[in-house]
Design goal:
Order of helices and strands: HHHHHH
Distance between the termini: 43 Å
Organism: Jutongia huaianensis
Strand content: under 5%
Number of strands: 0
Number of helices: 6
Keywords: Membrane, Transmembrane, Transmembrane helix
Protein name: Stage V sporulation protein AE
Largest sheet: none
Shape: globular
Pfam families: SpoVAC_SpoVAEB
Helix content: over 70%
Radius of gyration: 16 Å
Length: about 120
């Protein structure tokens, strides 16, 4: 059942983004920033954690989840280290995910040999 909820929630998030892309003139980069900022705001309001518990991976994998991870990391770092945590928290919280994306993207580029258009 967890897989079904993750699929449904993640799919609904993707549908909402696709509707936004089709019905506005926003560029994809701006939509991604909106998603990350929305995740941060939902985390700051305390609404993302119950949503994440209910939806599982469907809530943590999209860019909303990335924004929430940034918020959590910054909050924890600020609580531990004060003002300097504002600058360190986001990097330490999401470093594994970003590193993984870079490494696997590089490996995929070696395997599939992409061409510039």
């Amino acid at each position: 059942m967890n897989y079904i909820w993750a699929f449904i929630v993640g799919g609904l998030i993707c549908v909402a983004v696709q509707i936004l892309m089709d019905n506005t003139k926003l560029l994809p980069g701006r939509i991604m920033v909106i998603l990350v900022c929305t995740g941060v705001i939902l985390g700051a309001l305390g609404w993302y954690e119950p949503f994440e518990k209910w939806a599982g991976a469907g809530a943590t994998v999209p860019l909303l989840g990335f924004g929430n991870v940034l918020f959590r990391g910054m909050k924890e770092a600020i609580d531990k280290e004060g003002f300097i945590g504002l600058f360190k928290g986001g990097f330490t919280a999401c470093s594994v995910g970003v590193s993984g994306a870079l490494i696997f993207g590089y490996i995929a580029s070696l395997i599939f040999k992409p061409k510039m258009k």
